[in-house]
Amino acid sequence: MFLDPADIIPGADDSDDEEEGAVVPSATLAVVIGAGPVGLITAAYLARRGFRVEVHESGPNPALGPRPNSQYPMVLTQRALLAFKELGMRVSFAGPGATPHRGTYDMSHAGGAGGGAASSGPVLRPGKPGDAYRSTAVVGRAQLEGELLAEIRRLWPHRVTVHYGSTLKRIDWDAKAVVVEAEGAPQGAPLSASSDRALRGNSLFA
């Protein structure tokens, strides 16, 4: 199966109509394993391209309380904040309404096998006034996941489904199937307790 870079990478050449066997997003189910920050952002980019997305997370629904080991701070760089802007996400820790943070790290001074100024290490440069996305942010992981999930449900309510208590058992590449096990009735999924479910067909796994 051919995956067009434009299906995931914004701004990439879109070759859906040029490549034989190219993925048609609207006819493809994308299965994402893990509903942490990376999994949710992956689901958001896929949904924006038109994929139907199922996210499967073995842990409990965070709406029932923070998951174990999820209470720690995360540093978000300018690249992450710009991704939220690009996706149209309204999050409290990025954008005009967010508390200003330090600035951005200039990595142009981090190289230099020959020594000198080029090897002095990264330089922290203050953010420009009014440039709300050229900064760094610190946010708790649980808060980050909660806000990303809320924005995904706001932006793509009929395109993305998140299943909690749903554990990946195996992927059968030959059959183009992924098998997940539900420990209960995950939100948005009519699954019976301890049932197995095989997702088959024209699928993309992430």
From TrEMBL:
GO terms for biological process: kynurenine metabolic process. Gene3D superfamilies: FAD/NAD(P)-binding domain. Keywords: Membrane, Transmembrane, Transmembrane helix. InterPro entries: FAD/NAD-bd_sf (IPR036188). Residues 1-20, 109-129 are annotated as: Disordered. The keyword Membrane applies. The chain crosses the membrane at residues 27-47. GO terms for molecular function: kynurenine 3-monooxygenase activity. The keyword Disulfide bond does not apply. This is FAD-binding domain-containing protein. It comes from Chlamydomonas leiostraca.
